[in-house]
Design a protein that fits this description.
- By secondary structure, this protein is an alpha+beta fold.
- It has a domain of about 220 residues: Histidine kinase-like ATPase, C-terminal domain (Heat Shock Protein 90).
- About 50% of the residues lie in helices and about 20% in strands.
- It is built from 15 helices and 19 strands.
- The strands form 4 sheets. Strands 1, 2, 3, 4, 5, 6 and 7 form a 7-stranded antiparallel β-sheet that branches. The chain has a 5-stranded antiparallel β-sheet with strand order 9-8-12-11-10, sandwiched between helices. It has a 5-stranded mixed β-sheet with strand order 14-16-17-19-18, with helices on one face.
- The protein starts with 6 loop residues before the first helix and ends in a 6-residue tail after the last strand.
């Protein structure tokens, strides 16, 4: 799934929108351009087809009409037909003569289905697959609709709508051309000649006229033929309701204000919006109406548009593939740079050589080169910061060391003063010698860190000084594992704690016990200095903790007065030495007295 904010997604969506917009604009323009052209071509085609249908139908009707004229214009036909005899033998000869004359006029392959001659006295001659004569009821014959229409034409032709030939055993559907004629020119035309033609002949003429030249299938156009009375000639339907629906098309066409024979309508048969053309024959009076639905008209445009859409989808798919490779060529070096940025730490600032991106884009190569230069500048800046920080830490340690020495001297001079007041000269001399050793340790050139064993020896020397003053009243217990003796710790962090314990322990009944215990953890160490004195006042612990929090927020050395200077000094130096990863805890023991626990990371000389 594409993430919307990735290069791949943005390139794909922008190119997709571009391609889709081009396709949509092209389809709209193409549809607007082609629809009128297709409509015009379809109209021309339908005009041509309608004219072709009318011409072919007129040829057929004219052929039938010509046959009728030949028959009634033939004197032998009239002589034989109007010869009146009651003798059966004479009647048989009369029928044979008529058949022979009609055969001579039309040949062995007549262009009609059946020929009928009606005399005004009811005598009828029928010529078709067989020929015979008979008498019919004159009054009944005159009442038939087609007979009335023919007689009313007074010698002009009458074309009947499609109907069943009831005299034919198969009830063939026919269309007939009939006309009245007189026995002698100038007399009343009260005799009828009727030429019948099968409806299938007209149906085939119409269907062939609308067959596509390049296809054996009917075109998508619908054709309808009506006579002058509005009767449906084609398509012939037995269902009255369907015929009436088709007849309504003629009314719509004739009501159209168009004077070019073109209409636009909703086809009542299939209820589709359609365009149509119509034409009327001067010979037969028949009206030919051709309809084509707009859906069928625009089908080529729809098919073309569908193909364009398919091509557009294929183009989008190709675009997706192309954008994948383009975006990958962009995103791969960017991801590589992003990975380098994420992995950028103090240790990663010193690679042997950062390789080029091998990107095909100059901009990315320039960006990578800028990153390399930035890393080099950052490395130089960090080296300067580390150097400055190192000098700062060294200065702060020296400053704290300088604070510690006067503090210790202040306490030692106080002890010597007391010994002198008590006239303990030998103890004072020994104290001064031990003090000289202690000061030598304090003033040694190793300002940063010492081995724990040296700090313990210095602390033992200090306790020895204190025992000069207090004698057996002061007890000292040491429990430090041998494995801890090589640890590197800040100078003067244990002896001041012992000094602090002695300060508060002498306020209770002796003996005063000072304990130093040590413990190694997984990657750190801790030493606890405890006593059995009166402990810390809770308010003092609270004030110290506040002071420690204040120191945590400072970068310089806090201003400290003499009271509490030892603990705060130790806290500050442990913090600097262990880079904040330190242990410092002050508490009162449940059994009495207090304990101070310090600790930090395990560091060894040369490590």
């Amino acid at each position: 799934m594409l993430k919307l904010k990735t290069i791949h997604a943005k390139i794909f969506f922008r190119y997709s929108i571009l391609i889709a917009s081009i396709i949509i604009i092209f389809l709209i323009a193409f549809s607007d351009y082609m629809t009128p052209i297709l409509r015009s071509k379809s109209s021309q085609s339908m005009h041509q087809i309608s004219a072709n249908v009318l011409d072919t139908l007129d040829l057929e009707i004219n052929s039938i009409y010509s046959t009728a004229l030949k028959v009634i214009s033939s004197n032998p036909v009239k002589d034989a037909f109007f010869k009146n005899t009651n003798d059966p033998a004479e009647q048989s000869i009369q029928v044979n003569n008529l058949a022979s004359i009609v055969l001579s006029i039309n040949g062995l392959m007549p262009n009609f289905f059946k020929l009928n001659l009606y005399r005004n006295d009811g005598y009828t001659f029928e010529y078709g697959n067989q020929f015979f004569s008979r008498f019919v009821d004159q009054q009944q014959l005159v009442q038939e609709g087609w007979v009335k229409e023919t007689l009313n034409q007074n010698g002009k032709r009458y074309i009947s709508p499609p109907h069943k030939d009831l005299s034919d055993p198969s009830s063939t559907t026919i269309i007939s051309v009939s006309m009245s004629f007189a026995e002698v020119y100038g007399m009343k035309s009260n005799n009828i000649v009727e030429i019948e033609q099968k409806y299938s002949v007209f149906e085939n003429i119409i269907k062939k006229a609308v067959i596509s030249p390049n296809s054996d299938l009917l075109q998508t156009k619908s054709v309808y033929v009506f006579d002058q009375q509005g009767n449906v000639i084609f398509p012939y339907k037995d269902d009255v309701k369907t015929r009436e629906t088709i007849k309504s098309l003629r009314d719509i066409a004739l009501r159209s204000p168009s004077n070019v024979g073109e209409i636009s309508l909703i086809n009542p048969i299939d209820h589709e919006k359609s365009i149509g053309v119509y034409a009327q024959s001067d010979l037969s009076g028949w009206l030919v109406l051709l309809l084509e639905s707009e859906a069928s008209l625009t089908k080529p445009v729809i098919i073309f548009n569908r193909n364009i859409i398919v091509l557009g989808v294929i183009a989008l798919f190709i675009t997706l593939i192309m954008t994948y490779f383009v975006s990958r060529s962009l995103s791969r070096p960017i991801k590589s740079m992003n990975k380098s940025l994420k992995n950028l730490e103090l240790d990663s600032l010193y690679p042997k050589k950062m390789s080029a991106l091998n990107s095909s884009f100059d901009e990315l190569e320039e960006l990578n080169q800028t990153f390399i230069e930035m890393r080099d500048r950052l490395k130089e800046s960090l080296e300067e910061v580390v150097s400055a920080r190192s000098h700062e830490i060294q200065s702060r340690l020296l400053a704290l060391q300088a604070q510690m020495n006067p503090h210790f001297l202040h306490n030692s001079l106080s002890v010597i003063s007391i010994l002198c007041e008590e006239r303990r000269n030998e103890d004072a001399i020994r104290f001064c010698k031990d003090l000289s050793n202690i000061l030598r340790y304090i003033s040694s050139t190793n300002f940063n860190a010492v081995n724990l064993v040296d700090e313990i020896k210095h602390t033992a020397d200090y306790i020895s000084l204190m025992q000069v003053r207090y004698g057996e009243l002061l007890e000292f217990q040491l429990n430090i594992p041998e494995a801890m003796m090589d640890l590197q710790i800040p100078k003067l962090v244990i002896q001041p704690l012992v000094e602090n314990c002695i300060k508060y322990a002498i306020h209770v009944e002796p003996p005063w016990v000072i304990r130093i215990t040590g413990k190694l953890l997984s990657d750190s160490w801790m030493i606890t200095v405890s006593d059995n004195g009166s402990g810390f006042d809770p308010e003092t612990i609270h004030e110290l903790n506040n002071k420690f929090r204040e120191i945590d927020g400072l970068k310089g050395i806090p201003e400290i007065n003499m009271n509490g200077m030892g603990l705060i000094n130790i806290y500050s130096r442990l913090k600097i030495f262990n880079e904040d990863k330190m242990i410092f805890d002050i508490k009162n023991n449940k059994a009495g007295g207090s304990s101070v626990t310090i600790g930090g990371l395990q560091k060894y000389e040369g490590g």
